[in-house]
């Protein structure tokens, strides 16, 4: 039974059927083995850890321009003051920007804990999101409870204890400035307390500050015991008595002066070492340092009104009974005269303090009538 002539297979039909059956059986066994293997592989895949690739796609631009200019949505960071001030000191050398920028006012709230006048400020900020940013420095032990819809939600910077009359208050103000400098859009910086209120709407305040060539820092030479009398001769020759100045800690500075403040390693160490109660750093450091370095950029006046007529170490505080129509008229119409854009004007003050929590309700009732919001 071999191969016959003409190449034809001469095998019996039964043999051909047997070969076909063996081939079919072998194929079935192979498929069964393959099925078992796939099932086993599936079980192992669920047990073995999946190794993620650590290679970033080539199209992810980690150092894109957007990463440098985009404002931080989360203000929390782990930098200490030295690291923060160094990071905040970065200054572009080219004045022409390669992107569109709307300069903003950074409102810097220095507070122990809550902001009892927050509802008034919420009304003030509403609808002007592109013109401002907010930063809050409170005691580390205080846990804010602003709702997620609030403009103050998540605006607390990493803070440290700040005590009135001590250098830690100045540290807190420098810390606020440094955190705000991390946002390249912030051009002007205003220090405020929890007892401050705005005297005009945000559009008026923005125009007033943005169109000024100068920064509003209260600076004057006080020859009395609470002025020059606080000077420590050990600060000479870095700080001379003829350069010693006094002023309010509630000031407004532009970006250039804010950078000068956080990068100062000449005058600040002298104040930290030699200006201790009854020398109060917050009343003398900023006015003196800025007067020495950049007197041509200062108005020598403050934007914040306070009332010292009641006497004492602190200005008057106004509560619910004080905030009346008569009081608001006197506050807005009785302003001092000052120089703005080389012209004398009575339109000098943009903020006022000190207002207690009880003043909130009458302020809300009168704000649209007198404050413009």
From TrEMBL:
Residue spans crossing the bilayer: 20-39
UniProt entry tagged with the keyword Transmembrane helix: yes
Keyword terms of this UniProt record: Glycoprotein, Glycosyltransferase, Membrane, Transferase, Transmembrane, Transmembrane helix
One family name in Pfam for this protein: Branch
Membrane topology summary: Single-pass type II membrane protein
Keyword Glycoprotein: yes
Subcellular location: Membrane
Major localization class: membrane
Domain of life where this protein originates: Eukaryota
Protein known as: Glycosyltransferase BC10-like
